[in-house]
Specification:
The chain has 132 residues and is an all-alpha fold. It has 2 domains: 10-65, 434 Repressor (Amino-terminal Domain) (Orthogonal Bundle), CATH 1.10.260; 83-111 and 122-130. It contains 6 helices and no strands. The protein has helices at residues 10-18, 24-31, 35-42, 50-60, 71-107, 126-130. Helix 2 packs across helix 3. Residues 1-7 have low confidence and may be disordered.
Amino acid sequence: MKTALKSHPIGSILKDARGKKRSLEEASAAIGISKSHLWEIEQNRSSPSFAIVAKLCALYDADITSPAAHATEATVFDKLKARAKAIADRRSQLDADLAALIEDTAALDDHPEQDGEQYDGPCACAICRSAP
């Protein structure tokens, strides 16, 4: 059983090279493989032979060794990196919010109405002092 290429997703690169110029059916028929086999290659579920890669490159008039062939992969990586940074930034903000909430909760221990006491004067606890 063939396994997908993990470090070099050649199928994705070939799929990008095919683009909208040809259908799976047209491309597979042109190089003599089944439509499902080409789909498996493009999904990185099957490793194509060198002969198939060479035929597809010739058919698509593509040089998959050029940096432009890997642009989609780099774009996806950049998007993932940006998303990870956004999540880290959001987590930092949530950590700061949580710390403030813990501090406010601790301040409630000093609140005169905590146990249902009635208090008519101005409250000096941290929560009431910071309230507008």
